Amino acid sequence: MRNTLQRQIILNAVAELNIHATAEQVFEYVHKTHPSISKATVYRNLKQLADGGELLSVGALSGSNHYDHNCHEHYHFICGNCECVYDVDGSLADIVMKNVQPSDEFEITECLISFSGICKKCSY
After folding, report:
1. What percent of the chain has a predicted confidence (pLDDT) above 90?
2. In the prediction, which pLDDT does 11 show?
3. How far apart are CA 75 and CA 16, in angstroms?
4. Long-range contacts for 38-42 (Cβ within 8 Å, ≥24 apart)?
5. Which end of the chain has less neighbouring CB within 10 Å, N or C?
């Protein structure tokens, strides 16, 4: 994967936003300072960055993928009210993977754990 200026701008935008941004949020942020970068370029590069391990794809919430610049092992808490995504440190995946029974039907390549509830802002 070539490290283009556009790709670096998009990667920096995800880090600067620091909110587990959707592709649309990244595009809006990038578009303010780089209006020549198209929405298709942002979406394509986010997918490539996630596929290449430079970003984490947190998954789809309300139909939109969310991206995280924090690639160290961690989990996510998703507020059931405002749908904000927060980082949660921990090491549960090793415990879970050791206790999963092998199967001839599939091969597990990744363990994604997320927690849900109500965040502090929404609980008041």
Report:
1. 45
2. 96
3. 20
4. 41/6, 41/10, 42/10
5. C
